[in-house]
Amino acid sequence: MYRNVLCLVMGLIIGIRLTDLFEYFQLTESPEFGSTSITQMEEVEATPQLLTEEQLTHWLHNETRVLCMVLTMPQNHESKASKVKRTWGKRCNKLIFLSSKEDPNLGAIDVGVAEERDNLFIKVRRAMKYVYKNYGEDYDWFLKADDDTFVIMENLRWLLYPYDPEAPLYFGHRFRTTFPKGYMSGGAGYVMSRDALRRLNLFAFNNSKFCPVNHQSEDRQIGYCLQNVGVVAGDSRDDEGRERFLPLGLRSLLPNFPKDGWLPSVIFYDPPKDVCSHTGISFHYVKSHEFDIYEFLLYRLRVFGAPAIQRSLPPKIELKQLETQMHHWSQETSTNLKESLE
Q1: Do the bridges between strand 282-283 and strand 245-246 make them parallel or antiparallel, or are there none, so unpaired?
Q2: Which residues, in sequence order, are CB contacts of 307 under 8 Å at separation 6+?
Q3: Which residues sit opposite 141 in a β-bridge?
Q4: Alpha-carbon distance 226 to 228, whole Å?
Q5: Which of 27, 84, 224, 267 is most buried as measured by Cβ atoms within 10 A of its Cβ?
Q6: pTM across the whole model
Q7: d(Cα 69, Cα 63) in Å, to the nearest integer?
Q8: pLDDT digits (tens, 9 = 90+) for 65-76
Q9: Model confidence over 185-221: pLDDT tens digits?
Q10: Residue 97, SS3?
């Protein structure tokens, strides 16, 4: 009796599954199925190089997901921070302002740290704990910038696309310091892979030897903590050695790299004469009124007769090649022969 019941149940299950399978084949053979957004996305992902540059930009927006963390303070919410939100910040996959006062309209969180320069590292540390806890597995890369930084998100994604976000890696404008691997300028902005943020939170922040709490500069200390948990400082310069992340504004870097001031003594790489890359990513010390200038010149102004060059995506880097590249970067020493200020 039990055997007959079991056979009957098995027969019903098999019959239902065969019916589903038959309906599936009917659906996939219909002309409407080939035009669904899911099928189109799969085709786009399979052949992204066949798209125009504008289409590639839209595709990259979801392919290389970037959460942006912007350091600000309450007195800048309605000035610099709002300009960031209205210009380059709207091109982030997620935008969060790190402040000492919550502002839902802006998207600012209160990290619970007083606004003092000596507290910047503690403030960013708290913020990165918050971001990791709430969004650590939802995005591929995590950008930290200041509220006087302008970022070209399209060029940032173009740079990041070849790299696996599960590799312990971060990019920015590299400075030299007392520890050999250096660190990335906080003003120019630095971007961490998902694994870099994970290591920072799980291993560095939980070990006072790896990541001591002090009042050193925020960017230097984050670099020190990342180095101690095996995160590699990548080289984001272009093929001609020109920088993409710029710790100063264009008015300070053009037409040539400055020979005086603080910057020449702290840069990690000896700069070429033409320091600004044609695929630049960020500019620092942007004044409030300059956000609109950058936005206009980059996204609205069109020059009649200027050649439009169709660029394609760089190829994805295979695991073995990435391991070799990261090992090379981890062994690099500064090529800047100028006497350090530190």
Answers
A1: parallel
A2: none
A3: 66, 193
A4: 5
A5: 84
A6: 0.84
A7: 19
A8: 999 999 999 999
A9: 999 999 999 999 999 999 999 999 999 998 889 999 9
A10: strand
